[in-house]
Every structure is written in C-alpha cells, then in structure tokens.
Amino acid sequence: xxxxxxxxxxxxxxxxxxxxxxxxxxxxxxxxxxxxxxxxxxxxxxxxxxxxxxxxxxxxxxxxxxxxxxxxxxxxxxxxxxxxxxxxxxxxxxxxxxxxxxxxxxxxxxxxxxxxxxxxxxxxxxxxxxxxxxxxxxxxxxxxxxxxxxxxxxxxxxxxxxxxxxxxxxxxxxxxxxxxxxxxxxxxxxxxxxxxxxxxxxxxxxxxxxxxxxxxxxxxxxxxxxxxxxxxxxxxxxxxxxxxxxxxxxxxxxxxxxxxxxxxxxxxxxxxxxxxxxxxxxxxxxxxxxxxxxxxxxxxxxxxxxxxxxxxxxxxxxxxxxxxxxxxxxxxxxxxxxxxxxxxxxxxxxxxxxxxxxxxxxxxxxxxxxxxxxxxxxxxxxxxxxxxxxxxxxxxxxxxxxxxxxxxxxxxxxxxxxxxxxxxxxxxxxxxxxxxxxxxxxxxxxxxxxxxxxxxxxxxxxxxxxxxxxxxxxxxxxxxxxxxxxxxxxxxxxxxxxxxxxxxxxxxxxxxxxxxxxxxxxxxxxxxxxxxxxxxx
Amino acid sequence: xxxxxxxxxxxxxxxxxxxxxxxxxxxxxxxxxxxxxxxxxxxxxxxxxxxxxxxxxxxxxxxxxxxxxxxxxxxxxxxxxxxxxxxxxxxxxxxxxxxxxxxxxxxxxxxxxxxxxxxxxxxxxxxxxxxxxxxxxxxxxxxxxxxxxxxxxxxxxxxxxxxxxxxxxxxxxxxxxxxxxxxxxxxxxxxxxxxxxxxxxxxxxxxxxxxxxxxxxxxxxxxxxxxxxxxxxxxxxxxxxxxxxxxxxxxxxxxxxxxxxxxxxxxxxxxxxxxxxxxxxxxxxxxxxxxxxxxxxxxxxxxxxxxxxxxxxxxxxxxxxxxxxxxxxxxxx
Lengths: 537, 333
Known about the structure:
Chain A is an all-alpha fold. Chain A has helices at 2-18, 20-47, 52-77, 95-107, 114-119, 128-158, 162-194, 200-209, 216-224, 229-238, 242-270, 280-283, 287-291, 296-310, 312-320, 323-334, 339-342, 346-359, 362-366, 371-375, 380-410, 416-440, 464-489, 496-536.
C-alpha cells in the first residue's frame, strides 16, 4: 500500500513535467527555490561576521519570513493538491489512513526542499547554539510540512474565489516585500561599509532614511510571536538564555499541534459525505441583486450597476476622466492663468463629465430594451433613482477625494468648503438635470454592443442642442457656488467659502430632487413614446 | 448558430445537450421536466389576486373602482371566469397608412388564443397596443376589465408579455435577467429565487443561467424572455412570435407549459407564422390582414372544416399574388 502510494506520488510529480506549460513552471519554481536555498546558505555563512545585535535582528526577521513562507508560498503557488485526499476514500481507506497517506506522500515532493532550508542555520551557530539548531531541524521540517499542507488547502479553496485570491496574493507580496525591506534596513549600515567611499552621500542618506526601521521594538515584537520560534531557539541559546530556547521548543511543539489539528479538521471536512443538492445552483441570487432590495428601484439600480461594469459605453468615460485634469491644467498653464486659479477647475470638470456623460442620455442607451420597464409599469421615480445610484456611488468618492487633493494643491485648508460646494453642486445638479433630460429629450445614442467611440449612424438627429443645454443648465446650478468661490479667492470680505458650500449643496440637492421628480413624471407620461423613439433609432 | 452553444459552458453536463433537437435523450428529458415542473409553474395565477388588490388600493385610491371589478370575479381559485382581454375599436395610423384599423377582439379567460396574419398585417402593432407598449390612436384595451391605457399599473400586473424584435438587457446573465424581471415586478427575493429555479428547469435553461443573455442562441433568448414574462404569474400572457427560431423540442416543452397554464385558468394570446402549430395548439384563432380583423373565434368556427392554412390564404387573399409574372416562366438565355 505504502509503496503503491509513493509510486503514485512519484508518477504524479513526473507527470507535471510531461505537459509543456507545467514543466516550464516546475523548472522555474525549482530554479527559484534553488537560488533561495543557496542564498540562505550563503547568508547564514555571512551572518557569522555580523555583530551580535544586527545578527540577532536579522535572525528574528528571517525566522518569521521563513515560517510564514512555509504557509504562504504553497498557498500562492498551488492550484490543486497534487494527490487530492478526496480521491482516496474510494479505495476503502479511512480518514486516519488517508491522513497518513497524505503526510507520507507529501514528504516525497516539494516538501523535500524543507531539508536543506532547515539545515542552513548549522553554519551560523557554534557551541551550545549549534546543538540547539541541530535539535530544531526535524521540528522545523515537520512544522513546515503541516504549514505547507494547510497552505495548499487554503490555496485550492481560494481558486473558486478569484477576488479573494487576488487580495491574498497582494497581501502575500506585500508581506514578502515588507520583510525584505526590514532585512535591508537592518543590514544597511553593514552594506554601506563595503560600498565605495565615493558613494558616501547616497549611502548615508539611504541608511538614515531606513533608520526608523532599525527600531529595536520591531524585532522585539517579532521575537514575541510564536511564528518561527524554532529558528530563534539557537539565537536565544547563544545569548545565554537557555530558558528562552526551551520555551521556543515548547511553543514550536504547540504550533505544530495546532497546525496538525487544523489540517486534520480540514481533511475531515473535505472527506465529509456530500449529497447532491438539486436546487443549490439556481437558488443563488446573483451578486448585485443580493445586495440591493428586491423592488423595482432595486432592479433598475442593480441593472445599472451591472451595466456600468460590463458595458463599454459607460466605461469609456473612465478612460477619459484621468486625462481631463492633465489637459486642463496644461492648457491653463500655457494660457498663463495662475496656478491658484487653474487648480480649482479640473475637479468640477471631472465630476461634470462623469455625471453628465453617463446619465443624460441613459434611456437611449437602453435602446428598445426599455420595454421591460414599460411592461412592468415601473414608476418613473424608481427608474430615475435606480439609474442615478451608480453615478452617485462613483461620483461621491470622486468629490471627496478630489476636494482633498485640490485643497492640498491650493495649500489653503479654508478652500475645502468652497471646492466641495462647487463639485457637490455639479454632481447633484448634474444628476437632477440629466435625470430630467434623459426622460424628456433622448437623442440617438451608440447602440448596445457598438464601439463606444462610434457616433450613432442616424440621419438628421444629433442631439447637439440637448448636450449643450444640459451642460449649461448643470453649470447654472453650480453658478452660485462658483461665484461665491470666486469672491473668496479674490479676498472679498465675508465667509464666502462657507457660502459656497451652502449654496452648492442646497442648489444641488434642490435640483436633484426636482429633476428626479419631474423626470420621473415625464417618464411615467412618455414611456411609450420613449420606446417608440428607441424603435425608430 | 452552433448547437453546442446551447450547452453548459463549463461542460458540467457532459457532452449531452439539453436543448438540441436531434437527441432522443433530450426529448425525453425536456418533456419529462415539463411534466414534473409545470405543475409548479401554473398555480401562481391563482394565488395572485389578493396582493394585487391590497397594494393597489393603497397606492392608487382612484383606481379602486377598477380594482374591485378586476379582482372579484377571479378571486375564487381554479375558476377563471370572465373576459381576459377585450379590445374595442383599436386603431393606429403611421403617417397616412392605417396599420391597424378598428380591431375588435374578445378573449375569454382560460383560452389558448392564436393570432395569425401575413407579414405587415398589423399583428405586432396590435399586440404592442394591447400590451401597453404602443399608444393607440383610438380604441380601448381592457385586461380583466382594467383599461391598459387608463390604469396601466393595475392592468399590467395581470399581463406578461414577449414583444417581437425588441432588445433585451442582454449584458445580464440569465439568472440576473430573471431576477431583474422579478424585482421589477416587485416580487420578494425568495419568491424570485424559487421561480427562477422552476422556470429555468422548465425551460431547460438551468445550466445557462450563469452565461450572458447576449451569448445565448436565438431560441434560448426567446425562452428566457418567455420565462421572464411568466415570472410574476400573470393572468394573461401575450407572446409575439414566441416560437420563431426555437427548436422543435423546446417548442413542445414551452407549449406544454402554456397548456398547463391555460388549463389552470391563465390566458395565452400568441402570434405565429406556423399555421400548423396554431391549429394544433390553440382553442381559438384570430386572422388579421391589412390591419383588419378578418375572422375571430373558436377554431372550429373559423376554419369551417378546412385547414387553417387554406382558410388563411382564402381570407387574406394571398392567392392573387401568384398570377402575373409570366416572364419568370420564359427564361432569358
């Protein structure tokens, strides 16, 4: 049985080399692992020359990185367990037998890499510390194997959750990077000594910049964690703290027990008897519809959010948006307008473009699909609010972040209310005006599925007047706020920045409410005409 | 379109197709699922009335009169009495052309009603006006006694529609599309989830729910649109060309669902070019040509012993077009 399993495992390992793609990755992985091991060995040898304090900190950081790496690297690299435990119950094995089989077969494979890694510290330590390091070797391998097994379990579970998987990868990369930065920070003074003297001003500034990271509290905090305690046992031994070294071994045994327990629990869970649940698939409510209420308004909003994400006609505006501030600032710089003024312009413009371009002709974007609203006699107000929610959801953060950035650029905190007032007026007012216009004055839009940069091929009607009109009206809503802001910038006495905030928010809210109400009523009245319009264009 | 596109994208159901016509296995499976599933689909028409009445009275006080009239006769379960659809003097002109000319139609509840006519006869225009999509110039449409154009909110609750030639929100997945339809009708989430499950099983769309509707074949698009039209369990279904480009197996399945629905008191009005299909499945039939209703009533009365095709050509006067064009019989080379 054992021989059979091991043969199977070896066969699986070599099969990975038969397929071109996976063979390439296997070779790359092995090369990287080899390089890492060589680096670790060389590092351990080199660390002998370090002073005690630096060596201690380096060992602490490396210990945590290695112990975490045993879990994280398999988690990120794995795609599926090479010998899935769920394949084994079919051969009449019980859970304990399967656990043994998985452990045994794991030892043959990438887990072998733990052996040279665990041996590396031997070249660093001498005397009693070396004894301690020797005793740690088998425990390090066992701990690594269990951590890696858990990593594989988590990693293969994450394959079904792409979003979480990406997040985990980002966190893993960040951790790795943080570890390396910490390591370099500790070693920076030592490295600086070996660099040519002519570079001194660069090296000095780098060493000084990294000084906060050499704070002893960091390594002390890391030393206090149970992660990688085994690697630190020889360190504590060499510092003459035999009790700490003993404690490290105790912690390590505990950690191994916990890891093994958790791993066994996941194994039991994976091996649980499953019944095919007939209704499970369809009973799942698709994403947006789970979040938003199951009402007509919620339906329109969910559909709008989905279209914002999937329909290039909505996405195209996000390609243009980042360019707008750059172009306007450049144009005004060339035009000789002072920075203090020109910096105020991009934010309202960006908010304007975002709100207006996505909303003011939204019904025409639906084309004839708008019949669904008509068939259900969706109330116009529901339709208007549902359509504007994505705009608000994207626009509000833009206003907040943009206000912060613009304020920072002006260097005057008291500009913030005025900037916020102006952009809020444009956002809310734009929503109101556009909600009204899309129900009352639709004009031919790019059809669903067409290139978003194409103009619709409809003779006669262009909608130019509607575009200009809706833009002008939106700026009219913002006019009081802009005027107050101009007063403030020109140092007219009075709290004009707060006036701008108030005027902008009030005018914006008022126009939004009125626009949605009137637009909704228009939609109620003209829905069949909207469909007829869509049929004709 | 490639028949394989009807299959599940992940290949979970193996190489077998659900809605491909050629497989005997698929036939059995399709009709089998109808037999088991449809028993779940039709009851909704019966359980509907009380929520309609209560919410509508609350929302639109003015409509209470109409509500009283609509809901009372249908309140007792199982018995669908009265007139499901009555159309009077319906007229629509486009410019100088009269597309629909003073059409009258009355459909008793529980009827499977066919609507036939040559191309350009005004079928779609009539159905669009009946369903509240196209404003008529003249005339009255009442669904279970409620005027579609005066009191659309109430009338459209009892109405499920499949328009022809109109787009769908096809960037949604199948599941999203049905949830959208259900939520638009104000159904709560659990009800929608339950009905999506039933409908997708009945229409053989279960393994396509996670694909975009834009990736569906033409027949699947029709099926999911019919499913969406049914999700709020309407009393009247108006389906414009429901079987265009739907494969025979699915057609049989859908007709099975519709027949059960009609048997439970629901009313179906469908248009089709397929005379044989209308003749086989419908209780009653209306024939329209040049915007005028030529004949309407129980199928036996309209046909007078002939086949629908003959009767249709006879009434619509298509035979004259065959005359002339003698030049086509003397070839030019």
